[in-house]
Amino acid sequence: MKKIIAEAFGTFILVLFGVGSAVLMGNQIGMLGISLAFGISIVAAAYSIGAISGAHLNPAVSLGMVTAGRMGTGEFISYAIAQIAGAIIAALVVLMIASGKADYSLAENGLGQNGYGAGYLGEYNLTAALIFEVVATFVFVTVILGATQKGAPAMMAGLAIGLTLAGIHMVGINVTGVSVNPARSIGPALFAGAKALADLWVFIVAPLIGGAVAGMVFKAGLTSAEE
């Protein structure tokens, strides 16, 4: 139960910092600031709850751990449920805060939801969105597996992972808003509705594929330090 609570809380931090920065401060800090907020959230969670649950904060990461042979299927399911719950609660908190601003409109301003196509940020098409999310998640989970493997400098893992997520956001916010995390996408989409829900499958399927493949490649020894 302690691990489940930790994963829910850690994912809450991720969505509160990341999505919150986009919704509440996006105009002031821009895409670079939002990218750093997502990265900082990972660092905060890694060093606060990492020793309890590993601070996955992401079903795609947990699935990567399964395919890498470092986690069981049952634990993956409980982690994913906790992560999604934490993301939903955080999205609700961000919505409640944003609603306190006189000119905020969920329909017009959104809730930091992911998307693609006409009307969404850079208006990249479905193919571009799928490629970005699969590749970016593969890279992210590969870094996590490598940074947390036996022999890696443990104290640096959280920083390496956080900086990687920040870098991914610097590359891809204009493409999809960057998911690489089904929980992060589910939370805001449930409240944003309409197009966000219609697009949501991309941000569940693509990250899970990227994470699963990263785990399989790691288990095969191609990205692992162990022979």
From TrEMBL:
The keyword Membrane applies. The chain crosses the membrane at residues 36-55, 76-98, 126-147, 159-180, 200-222. Keywords: Cell membrane, Membrane, Transmembrane, Transmembrane helix, Transport. GO terms for molecular function: water channel activity. It is found in: Cell membrane. Its main location: membrane. It is a multi-pass membrane protein. GO terms for cellular component: plasma membrane. Belongs to the MIP/aquaporin (TC 1.A.8) family. This is Aquaporin.
